[in-house]
């Protein structure tokens, strides 16, 4: 009789987003005349920029002719995209990353989940708390996290690094030494960032203890402040300790198209073995390439027109972020994030629990958000709002919150 991977049975279930959806549906059913505004959206809402649409049309037409038709893409991505990424995201920022250290994929969610394949199950992971849930759940599926302690909402074999008001929502170096450290800046859910010198400390630490940093820079395009690094490779020594994950989802609206990439420098080794060679083997065996037309669309993001148009979209979302942040401050809330990220992290008033505030906000303002406790124990008492809605809805939602 076959046996299943019973690590899956230990998973607590995706309580957060299914409960948000259930509660929202129940409210709408009971109050059909009320317009609920979703500031809980983690997805973009602006249509694809014209430069991207043009590249899609052009490459679709190429597929109709034998001379320009493309079948399987190269395992690691088309050279035209990898060299464009190397030039624009790395060389132009002074980062020493070459095109053949870039692995094109269908997005950062799958890469952040799959990267665990190349590490031993004995490795100990450290994550920020609150955290993007994929990092922990995928390690749990591999059996790397121990047992789930429901009363604490924690796994027994994970190092949680609390990101609290006291540290400006940045993690501190852990007391116990991890093997794999997940960092995500700008951060989902808190919207926080760290400076280049703070990130340098992490790189120095990882090199000292022999840990690898998995650096998720999916929100890099939202950075507006000068001392916030766009890539971990801006730090000295990162080539020997860091993997970087990037996505086209939030900078260019590819959540439905699907495109991302992972950078693994050739200097990142365990003994004589490069992680680059392991990921190349994994990628080539289990992934059959992002579609040609999507890779051409990705290339167009870096064209002059593509850069200008996607910048405008980000500015649109960040205008919403400002409306949310300033409005909440005026209403007396304690708020952070929203400057280098499309996420606003607020402290619930009067020590309300995250879920009590969720109900209160839905009931009184008919606004949906996401309870912070769903992202980890240190998220309790916090709440996430996002800037991905329309400007009009965002303004209306904040007016309603002010009137609560
Ligand atoms: N990483 C973080 C921190 C995210 O918040 C998200 C999506 O919300 C992703 C990765 C997923 O990116 P992709 O759409 O490229 O899979």
Considering the chains and any ligands shown, give keywords for the structure.
single chain, alpha/beta, Aspartate Aminotransferase, domain 1, Aspartate Aminotransferase, domain 2, 2 domains, 4-stranded antiparallel β-sheet, 12 helices, 17 strands, 15% strand, globular, binds pyridoxal-5'-phosphate, pyridoxal phosphate, LL-diaminopimelate aminotransferase, EC 2.6.1.83, transferase
How would you sum up this structure, described in words?
The protein is of the alpha/beta class. The protein has two domains: 8-47 and 305-402, Aspartate Aminotransferase, domain 1 (Alpha-Beta Complex), CATH 3.90.1150; 53-304, Aspartate Aminotransferase, domain 2 (3-Layer(aba) Sandwich). Helix content is 37%, strand content 15%. It is built from twelve helices and 17 strands. The protein has helices at 15-30, 50-62, 79-90, 108-114, 133-141, 196-209, 249-252, 275-286, 292-301, 304-330, 354-365, 391-403; strands spanning 37-38, 102-105, 125-129, 148-149, 154-155, 158-162, 180-184, 212-216, 242-247, 260-263, 269-270, 273-274, 335-337, 343-347, 367-368, 370-371, 382-386. It has a seven-stranded mixed β-sheet, sandwiched between helices. Strand 7, helix 6 and strand 8 (212-216) form a beta-alpha-beta unit. Helix 2 (50-62) packs antiparallel against helix 9 (292-301), helix 4 packs parallel to helix 5 and helix 10 (304-330) runs parallel beside helix 12 (391-403). It starts with 14 loop residues before the first helix and ends with a helix. The mean pLDDT is 96. Residues 42, 107-109, 112, 132, 184, 188, 216, 218, 247, 249, 255, 260 line the site of pyridoxal-5'-phosphate. Pyridoxal-5'-phosphate binds at residues 42, 107-109, 112, 132, 184, 188, 216, 218, 247, 249, 255, 260. Pyridoxal 5'-phosphate binds at residues 72, 108-109, 132, 188, 219, 247-249, 258, 288. It catalyses: (2S,6S)-2,6-diaminopimelate + 2-oxoglutarate = (S)-2,3,4,5-tetrahydrodipicolinate + L-glutamate + H2O + H(+). Pfam families: Aminotran_1_2 (PF00155). One of its GO terms (molecular function) is L,L-diaminopimelate aminotransferase activity. It comes from Lachnospira hominis.
């Amino acid at each position: 009789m076959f046996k299943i991977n019973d690590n899956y049975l230990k998973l607590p279930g995706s309580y957060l987003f299914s409960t948000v959806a259930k509660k929202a549906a129940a409210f709408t059913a009971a109050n059909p005349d009320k317009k609920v505004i979703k500031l809980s959206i983690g997805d973009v809402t602006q249509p694809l920029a014209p430069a991207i649409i043009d590249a899609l049309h052009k490459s679709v037409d190429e597929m109709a002719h034998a001379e320009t038709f493309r079948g399987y893409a190269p395992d690691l991505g088309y050279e035209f995209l990898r060299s464009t990424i190397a030039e624009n995201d790395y060389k132009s920022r002074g980062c020493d990353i070459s095109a053949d250290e870039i692995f094109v994929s269908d997005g950062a969610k799958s890469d952040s989940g799959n990267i665990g394949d190349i590490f031993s199950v004995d490795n100990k992971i450290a994550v920020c708390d609150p955290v993007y849930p994929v990092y922990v759940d995928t390690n749990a599926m591999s059996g790397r996290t121990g047992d789930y302690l429901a009363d604490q909402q924690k796994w027994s074999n994970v190092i949680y690094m609390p990101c609290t008001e006291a540290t400006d929502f940045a993690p501190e170096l852990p007391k116990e030494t991890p093997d794999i450290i997940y960092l995500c800046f700008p951060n989902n859910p808190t919207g926080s960032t760290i400076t280049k010198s703070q990130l340098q400390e992490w790189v120095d630490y990882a090199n000292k203890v022999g840990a690898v940093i998995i650096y998720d820079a999916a929100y890099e395009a939202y950075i507006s402040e000068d001392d916030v690094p766009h890539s971990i490779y801006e730090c000295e020594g990162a080539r020997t300790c860091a993997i970087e994950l990037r996505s086209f989802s939030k900078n260019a609206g590819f959540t439905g198209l699907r495109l991302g990439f992972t950078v693994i420098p050739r200097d990142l080794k365990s003994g004589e073995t490069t992680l680059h060679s392991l990921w190349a083997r994994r990628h080539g065996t289990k992934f059959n390439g992002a579609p040609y037309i999507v890779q051409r669309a990705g290339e167009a993001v870096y064209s002059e027109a593509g850069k200008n148009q996607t910048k405008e979209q980000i500015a649109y979302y960040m205008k919403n972020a400002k409306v949310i942040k300033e409005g909440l401050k005026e209403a007396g809330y304690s708020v952070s994030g929203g400057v280098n990220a499309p996420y606003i992290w607020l402290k619930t008033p009067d020590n309300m629990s995250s879920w009590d505030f969720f109900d209160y906000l839905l009931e009184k303002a008919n606004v949906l958000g996401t309870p912070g406790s769903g992202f980890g124990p240190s998220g309790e008492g916090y709440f996430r709002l996002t800037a991905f809605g329309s400007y009009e809805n965002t303004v209306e939602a904040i007016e309603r919150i002010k009137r609560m």
